[in-house]
Write a structure and sequence with these properties.
globular, single chain, mainly alpha
């Protein structure tokens, strides 16, 4: 079993919100709770759903490239 700590929790949350946003762009919605788009806007992201997804994709690529280069 893997335990996430510190910064890993924030990264896992952003990756989850990214996946949720991709589903929202395909037409799926959540009931009773805020959308991933609304949650990301509260975190300070700006723009349309597509813009925010592009920002998250770029951040994900940066993180992955740093992780690969560290190994």
């Amino acid at each position: 079993m893997t335990t996430l700590t510190g910064n890993q929790i924030d990264m896992a949350r952003l990756l989850t919100l990214r996946a949720m946003l991709k589903l929202e762009l395909k037409g799926m919605t959540r009931s009773r709770t805020p959308s991933a788009y609304a949650m990301l806007k509260k975190l300070g992201y700006k723009g349309t759903r597509e813009d925010i997804l592009a920002q998250l994709d770029a951040a994900r690529e940066d993180i992955l490239s740093m992780h690969i280069n560290a190994d």
